[in-house]
Write a structure and sequence with these properties.
- The two termini are 20 Å apart.
- The radius of gyration is 25 Å and the shape is elongated.
- It is of the alpha+beta class.
- α1 packs across α3 (71-96) and α3 packs antiparallel against α4 (100-107).
- Strands 1, 2, 3, 4, 5 and 6 form a six-stranded mixed β-sheet that branches.
- The chain has two domains: 8-127, no CATH class; 137-254, Ubiquitin-like (UB roll).
- The longest helix is centred in the first third of the chain and has 26 residues, at 38-63.
- It has helices spanning 8-29, 38-63, 71-96, 100-107, 111-127, 185-199; strands spanning 137-138, 156-163, 173-180, 216-221, 230-232, 248-254.
- Pfam families: TssN (PF17555).
- InterPro entries: TssN.
- Keywords: Membrane, Transmembrane, Transmembrane helix.
Length: 255
C-alpha cells in the first residue's frame, strides 16, 4: 500500500500554525525579561504556557485535523513546537538580556504547554476502549435480503455510514442512507452493501476475507473526540439504538 503524502496546503497550514504558536509561546516566555524575580515570573510564564497548551489542544482538532488521530502524532507535533520555542527563547534571552541560562530556565516551563495534549490524548485513548461486550454483525452469505414491504416506512431517518471499502485501507468513506426507524441496523447494512456493490461492481465494498469468510462488523456512533464511543447493537432497530436523524454510524471490520 502506498504511504500517504502530505498535501501542499496541509504542509503550509502546519508551517503557519507552528510559526504562530512558537511566536505566541516566545511572547509569553518573554515575560521573564520584565521581572527580576525569577520565581514569580516563572510561575506566571508556566500558567501562560498551560493556557496556550489548552488552546493548542482545541486548535489542533479544528485547524489541523491531519495532526490528530493518535497520541504519537499529536505529541510529536507538540514536541516540535516546544523545541522551536526553546530555540527562540534561548536566542531572545541571549541577545536581549545576555542571560542564556535564564532563558533555558524559562524554557523548562514549556512542560506546562505539553501537559494538556498528553492529558487529552490519554483521555481520548480511554474513550476508545470498547465495552467488555458488544455485538458484531456478519454478512449472511446465501441469505435473501429482508422484505422491505413488511416494514413501517412512515418514519425514515437520513443517516451516514462511515467505513473503509477495503480491509487494508486507512481512509474512511462516508455514505448516506435512508433508515426506517423500525428496521434492524444489521438488516439495513446488509441491504446497503448489496445495493452498493450491485451499482459499483468496479469498486465494491469487501465483506469477505481472503478465505471467503465474512468479516465481523462493529458499529458505533461517531462522536466528538472528548466523548466516549457508544456502540450499537446490529440486532436492534434504529429506534432502539437511539439513532437520530443525520447521525454518522462508523462500521469497523474484524476477522
Amino acid at each position: 500500500m502506498t504511504p500517504s503524502v502530505p498535501q501542499p496546503k496541509a504542509v503550509t497550514r502546519s508551517a503557519v500554525y507552528a510559526a504562530i504558536a512558537a511566536l505566541l509561546l516566545t511572547l509569553a516566555g518573554s515575560l521573564g525579561l520584565a521581572n527580576t524575580d525569577f520565581g514569580s515570573s516563572y510561575a506566571l510564564i508556566m500558567f501562560a504556557f498551560l493556557v496556550l497548551g489548552c488552546v493548542h489542544v482545541w486548535a489542533l482538532h479544528h485547524w489541523l485535523p491531519e495532526k490528530t488521530g493518535s497520541l504519537v502524532k499529536e505529541f510529536g507535533f507538540t514536541l516540535l513546537l516546544t523545541l522551536l520555542t526553546t530555540g527562540l527563547l534561548a536566542a531572545l534571552y541571549r541577545f536581549v538580556a545576555e542571560e542564556l541560562p535564564r532563558g533555558l530556565g524559562v524554557a523548562t516551563a514549556l512542560v506546562a504547554f505539553v501537559f494538556p495534549i498528553v492529558a487529552a490524548g490519554v483521555y481520548a485513548a480511554f474513550l476508545r476502549i470498547p465495552p467488555k461486550e458488544y455485538k458484531q454483525w456478519y454478512y449472511p452469505v446465501g441469505q435473501p435480503l429482508p422484505d422491505m414491504d413488511l416494514l413501517d416506512l412512515s418514519r425514515v431517518l437520513v443517516i451516514q455510514f462511515e467505513f473503509t471499502k477495503q480491509a487494508d485501507e486507512t481512509a474512511f468513506t462516508n455514505f448516506r442512507a435512508k433508515a426506517p426507524v423500525s428496521m434492524l441496523l444489521g438488516e439495513l447494512f446488509f441491504i446497503f452493501l448489496n445495493d452498493y456493490n450491485d451499482r459499483n461492481p468496479d469498486s465494491p465494498i469487501a465483506y469477505l476475507d481472503a478465505a471467503q469468510r465474512p468479516y465481523g462488523w462493529t458499529f458505533y456512533k461517531k462522536t466528538n473526540w472528548y466523548q466516549r464511543r457508544r456502540y450499537l447493537d446490529p440486532d436492534l432497530t434504529f429506534q432502539a439504538n437511539k439513532v437520530v436523524d443525520n447521525e454518522t454510524i462508523v462500521a469497523v471490520r474484524s476477522t
